[in-house]
Amino acid sequence: MLLTNAQIVTLQNDTDYGLIKDGVIAVRDAQIAWVGGVDAIPTTYRNESAHNLGGRLVTPALIDCHTHVVFGGNRAAEFELRLNGASYEEVARAGGGIVSTVSATRTASEDELLEDALTRVDALIAEGVTLIEVKSGYGLDHDTELKMLRVTRQIASRRPVDIRTSFLGAHAVPPEFKEKPDTYIDDICIPTLRAAHAEGLVDAVDGFCEGIAFDTAQIARVFDVAVELGLPVKLHAEQLSNIGGTQLAAKYGALSADHVEYANDADAQALAKSGTVAVLLPGAFYTLRETQAPRVQSFRTHGVPMALATDCNPGSSPLASPLLTMNMACTLFRMTPLEALLGLTAHAATALGLADRGRIAAGARADLCVWDVTHPAELAYRIGFNPLHKRIFKGSL
Ligand code: DI6
Ligand code: FE
Predict the structure, then answer these.
(1) Is this prediction's pTM over 0.90?
(2) Quick check: CB of 313 below 6 Å from ligand 1?
(3) Nearest CA to ligand 1 atom 10
(4) Which residue puts its alpha carbon closest to atom 7 of ligand 1?
(5) DSSP collapsed to 3 states, 54-90
(6) Would you say the CB of residue 100 lies under 6 angstroms from ligand 1?
(7) Is 279 in the pocket of ligand 1 (CB under 6 A)?
(8) Which pLDDT value is given to residue 373?
């Protein structure tokens, strides 16, 4: 297949859009075989069937590298209670908070979890996403964590999308282990990780390093098992305070450190040294009305790649729009539209340890988006507007 009459945003380096004005992409066997200007098409591709894109803009397909799209129930009632003046305690007594999602996830069947997740997956796909990372972490017991991961794997057979799983057993201390986080880590979290890995359900290991969740020593015990199993790690770090999660992630050569609102200059330096991506999550920043923005300038100065993701979850980021995520990153974090696009493509791929996608180049996966826009900055500029014309997944329209 030949895609012709396209404005191609190759993102071949991190300094500009890498725009090819009157461009052509040759696709073969789910891969980009060739990309370049119309005047330079090699003769071998000239007779392939051509799709004229009418001068539309083509970018790499979007990648959502941090989501929690598999969960039971939702927390709209709690949202409403809080806006009607209920206190934190009242919300908790009404069964609110993360524990309510844990109970709803434990009682939901696999089918219910899958059907619910697919509505969110469909929203992501509708805006051009072809790869979604999904975390466990609302089960917090052996059976439910495995149930979540099995459901997550099923998404890829129900929709044209790639899925990566992260085991997030160290997300919160479940009610039955209240005040006993260490026992939870040793008796439930780690054995469950081993069981999930044995079933082939785990692509990476994540944790929530925070005062309200787990400290660095507890996360390190989980990471040591990940290393033993040969699994890459990533970490929710410095979201609400600085307790050393970013440094820990860097020490373990993590794929990514996520949130990082409270990461400082030394943390940015450590990420640069370990080649760890900073994943910024403006949906959670916005929903929690956080005031400490991540230090984007420090990440730039030290050369830390910045990715962006929806963090789609029922509590802190009920957001299923990568385009709005780009807009929020520009408006709230002062990222540039180019950085926002790199954050949902090339750098998101790096945050998942994948080198074969996220840019438009020969040899890369033919995962592409065709947009009804004339300038790439339009993708981040508008609010509540979806200009996706076509999504190409593994070379198929
Ligand atoms: N950070 C968050 O913001 C969410 N999880 C995490 O590790 C909160 C999840 C929830 O409230 O359901
Ligand atoms: Fe998260």
Answers:
(1) yes
(2) yes
(3) 315
(4) 208
(5) CCCEEEECEEEEEECCCCCCCCHHHHHHHHCCCCHHH
(6) no
(7) no
(8) 98
- Can you point out the beta strands (E) in the chain? 2-9, 19-28, 31-37, 50-52, 57-60, 62-67, 129-135, 162-170, 204-209, 234-237, 256-259, 277-280, 306-308, 368-371, 388-392
**Under 8 Å between Cβ of 201 and 146:** yes
| pLDDT class of 13 with cuts at 50, 70, 90 | very high
Return the ligand 1 atom nearest residue 210 CA: 7
pLDDT at 86: 87
Q: Please identify, by atom number, the ligand 1 atom nearest to the C-alpha of residue 75.
A: 12
Regarding the beta carbon of 315 and ligand 1, being less than 6 Å apart is answered yes
Residue 252, φ and ψ in degrees, nearest 5? -90, 10
Tens-digit pLDDT profile for residues 91-100: 877 778 899 9
Closest C-alpha residue for ligand 1 atom 2: 316
Q: Tell me the C-alpha distance between 382 and 374, whole Å.
A: 13
Tell me the sheet residues that pair with 207.
170
SS3 for 65?
Answer: strand
Mutation pick for ligand 1 pocket among 166, 286, 316, 319 (CB with most ligand atoms within 8 Å): 316
Residues 6+ apart with CB under 8 A from 35: 8, 10, 20, 23, 24, 25, 26, 360, 361, 362
Q: Under a CB-based contact definition with an 8 Å cutoff, are residues 239 and 267 in contact?
A: no
Give the model confidence (pLDDT) of 218-241 as tens digits.
Answer: 999 999 999 999 999 999 999 999
207: amino acid identity, one letter:
G
Sign of CA dihedral 158, 164, 238, 276: negative
* Residue 236 near ligand 1, beta carbon < 6 Å: yes
Ligand number nearest to the C-alpha of 288? 1
Distance 94 CA to ligand 2 centre (A): 24
Ligand 1 pocket, 101 CB below 6 A? yes
Confidence of residue 317 (pLDDT cuts 50, 70, 90): very high
Mean of all residue pLDDT scores within the chain: 97
155-180 residue pLDDT tens: 999 999 999 999 999 999 999 999 99
Closest C-alpha to 58, from 344, 308, 373:
373
Residue 39 pLDDT exceeds 90: yes
Q: Is the CB of 305 under 6 A from ligand 1?
A: no
314 Cβ inside 6 Å of ligand 1: yes
